[in-house]
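Q: Got a minute? One more chain.
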Amino acid sequence: MLATCLALTLSALAALHLYWSLGGVRYREFATPAIGGQPTIRPSRTAFAIVAGLLCLAGLVAVSMETGRDIFGAGASWAWIASILFGARALGDFRLIGLFCSRADAEHRKIERGVIAPICIFLCLGFGRLAFLYPG
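A: Always. Here it is, folded:
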């Protein structure tokens, strides 16, 4: 059940990043940190596509671990890596992204702290739990 929740969450995030990689702009301003109304980064379409692919792979890791079909080999290691990466994303860089962002515009901080970081915390804890339950 946990792997299904993780996979569904990651699929939704992958779909959003794929939408952005195909040129979609809706909600993009909420996910892009800004200072003084100016975006601090401008991810390329390729970058969005790569992130979408990695999110899909993370979902496959979760499902493969819970079903006992470790298609990637050393699934617990991949789960720990995913847990660490999502935990790091939740904490952020203490400036523009994460729970402790301080320099980003107020609107971005609100989305970051209220939506993005909590999703990353859920993914971090979920992958940590999977790695603990299915050590390989």
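A: The chain has one domain: 2-133.
Q: Perfect, thanks.
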